[in-house]
Specification:
By secondary structure, the protein is an alpha/beta fold. It is built from 18 helices and 14 strands. Helix 1 packs across helix 18.
Amino acid sequence: MSQKVCMFVWNHFTNDARVLRECTALSEAGYEVDLFCIHDPRDASLPRYEERNERFKVYRLKRYPVLLELMQKIYRYSLQNKLFGAFFLLVWGLLIYMAPIVFSILTVLAVLLLKTNLKVLWVRGSLILGLIIKGFQKNYDIYHSNDLNTLPQGYICSKWRLKRKKLIYDSHEVQTSRTGYESPIYGKMEGFLVKRIDEMIVENHTRAAYNEELYGFYPHVVHNYPFKQTSNNEGKLNLHEILGIPREEKILLYQGGIQTGRGLDKLIQAAPLFNEGVLVLIGDGKIKKELQAKIQEMKLEDKVKFLPKVPLAELPKYTRNAYLGFQVLNNVCFNHYSASSNKLFEYMMSGVPVVACNFPEIKKVVAEEKTGITVDSHNYEEIANAVNKLMKNPALRETYSQNSIAARFKYNWEEEKQEFLTVYNNVS
C-alpha cells in the first residue's frame, strides 16, 4: 500500500518549480501526494482543486474568511452607492439603539478588522487553521512543510496526536537571515521546531554548514535544479516582436522576482553603459513601479523593457531569446549570499551564458563549468564591463553557451531527484 504525503506550501502554487518537481517525483515513485496551498482570488482562472496525475492532487484554500469578504463588500459598495450606505448606517444605528452593548462592540471590532493590522492576523490565522484542519482530514503517513511559514502546521498535524507521524522540513531559504524576516522571533521559532522534525532539506552545502553551526546537525542537500531540457522542447517565442525591439538588438535578460536585494537597481544603472543590447526584465514584485519610474527619470524606455510574470512551463520559450542572462543578487543577507539560484540553472538549460554575482555557490558553478562571468554585483560599472566583454567577443559568448548546454546534463532534476527520494526512504 502506497504511503500518503501531506505537503504544505504558503503560496498559490503557480510558479513554485521546486515544489512541483518534488511532488511529481514522489508521485512517480508511488507516493500519494496531497499538496495544500493558497488560492489567489485575483486570478479567476486558478482552480481550487487540480489533479496533476492520479497520485498528485492540489488543493487551494480560500484566502479570505467569508465574513471578512462580506464586510469588505458592504464597505466598498457603501462607498460607491451613497444611498445604500446611508440606508445601511440607518439600519446599523437602529441595531445599536436596540442592543447598544452588543452592536457597539461589533462596530468597534469591524473598524479594527477592516482598518488595522488585525485584518492581516485574521487572514493569516484562518489560513493556518485551515491548513491544520486539512492536515488532519486524512490518515497521512508523512507531513512535508516547505519553509518556516508552514512548519508549525506540519508540526501540529504530525506530532499532536497519539500515534506520531513523520515530519520533513524543506527549507528553501535561510529563515534566520533573509529579507523580510528581520525579527528574532523567526529564528526562535525555527530553533524550537527544528528539534521536533524527523528530516531536514536545504538547497546547498553552504546552507547545510550554516545549519550545522546553528543546530548541531547537517541536513540533507537537495539542489534546486530544473527539469532537463532537450532538443525535443526548444520552442521559442519572438521577444523582439513582442516588445518591439529591433531584430539586430541583443536581449540581455533578467527573469525572476522584481524585489529588493536582487541587484535590479544596479542593472538599470549599468544599462546606459551597455555598448549594445536591450535589458529585459521578466517578472513582478514590490519594487517594479519604483524601477519603472527610475527608468522614465533616466529616459531609458528604449534601453529597458518589462514583461509580467509568465507561467513556469512557458518561461524557457522566453529565456531562449537571450544573448546573456543576469543573476546579480546583492549581499543583503546570508540567504542571498548562500543562494544557488534556480535562475542560474534555468539560463543554463537554455544555453544562455550569465553575468552573475561572485557568491560562493553561484561562483563555484560558473567557474567550474565556464558558463559566464562573475562580478561584484554591487558595482554597476563591473556589471557593464562584463556585458560589454561578451558583446565584443561573440566567440567567447558562444563558448560559454556550449558549456552551458553541456552542463545541463549534470545540473538537472532527473539526476538530483534521487537525493530527494533518499530523504523519503529514510523516513518511510
